[in-house]
């Protein structure tokens, strides 16, 4: 892979919409069409989770049935249990993400299981997925801090990484779920994690809650990470982090990376246009800087 290339996964449709009031399937498809027009090659489309707990994802199977209309994009879906993995595979997804929180308190609040119990299910989820030629990515939530337990011990993240490698997952990612990480802490965790996960592709997921999301993303890229999640408009947030501004905005990240000499698939102006579609879909302002200010003036 080109050392100066970064792959961006668009997560507005899942992580972005997860805490929003449910919007119609037609509105989701309109947003997806705008996202597809950016040139992005990876999109997190939905989540196969309990509709009662996450009503905005209740149409997961219906949305999955429309994904064939967008060729050239690798779609993934988040799952929180083996049953969710079975539903995703049955709906035709060929890439799933299983979230394991490094914090016990967050894991219990989010999925009703301890971190160790969630980690122990990795093998079952991998078996379900691989039996259907579906890839599995483990995403470690609260990799740096938990809103309940405070700072996360890096050893907890490393233990999940070791379990993921042992169970033959396909990809691994670390997430700053509540937007508290800073660049030095990002670089430090990546340096500790690399020897543990070996050649597993490593991704990063950052929130801009405290204004450091883009700096953390850049620190991750500087440490060798070549896959980053982002959401058009900066749509999204964490239900356990009141006041959170959400994911780093796709257009802000594209601006930073391309102006710093990195290659990405996402077209900046198309991403800004998609952010406008997202703003209309949810009916409120979004935190994206470029949605507000636009690209810099070139003379």
Automatic annotation (TrEMBL):
One of its GO terms (biological process) is L-leucine catabolic process. Pfam families: HMGL-like (PF00682). Gene3D superfamilies: Aldolase class I. CDD domains: DRE_TIM_HMGL. One of its GO terms (molecular function) is metal ion binding. Signal peptide: none annotated. Keywords: Lyase, Metal-binding. Transmembrane segments: none annotated. It comes from the Bacteria. Residues 6-272 form the Pyruvate carboxyltransferase domain. Belongs to the HMG-CoA lyase family. This is Hydroxymethylglutaryl-CoA lyase. It comes from Mycobacterium asiaticum.
